[in-house]
Amino acid sequence: xxxxxxxxxxxxxxxxxxxxxxxxxDEILPxxxxxxxxxxxxxxxxxxxxxxxxxxxxxxxxxxxxASVLASLGKPAFFIRIEDIEADFxxxxxxxxxxxxxxxLQSTKEAWFFLDSVDEARLENPRGFxxxxxxxxxxxKEGAHRAHIYLSSRPYAWRxxxxxxxxxxxxxxxxxxxxxxxxxxxxxxxxGTLTIYTMRPLDKERIRRFCVAREAKNIDxxxxxxxxxxxxxxxxxxx
Length: 239
Fold this sequence. Notes:
Radius of gyration: 18 Å
Number of helices: 11
Shape: globular
Strand content: 5-15%
């Protein structure tokens, strides 16, 4: 899906409780209804953030599009595929470029990095994610404390305990920080610790909005058939 065909759906995110993350199973399942969902506006304040989403939910497009939105507002924002970092960091930029990166690095401003995705980085080499992450940290150097860093992954590829330890080792942010994207009095939740979110699938309202934007025919009948066949698990994924 191209950026110009993106449909704004005001995607929502739910925090993954640490007790759930620390469970014996590596599979992380969202617990809807227990916590108030977050939006990109809320996540702008995070400095270290992982976003988990199942296949087809739209995580790659959302990260790419949000990087584009921030860039259009004049903020240093970059979208990078994790599996491309090790080969050539500067050629890996899909949103942003080397000149913009160097300008940010030499400034005192904050920047937003969207790194997609952990599961793709591990396809050919189980250590591919770790190697790419270490290359990334080396390249952002002294600007790391000014970097809002978002990583995406499918739940099956995220190893809760091992990967949290890895990110805390490599990307630890010791100081309490208040990001530029935060409202007055709102503190970033990532004060030296990683925050994990799941991207929520589309609800009926957002499915209808998506259908309208795609000029689908007989939308009411379509939604009725999805309900009749109990296919919401498919209909809630933009893919």
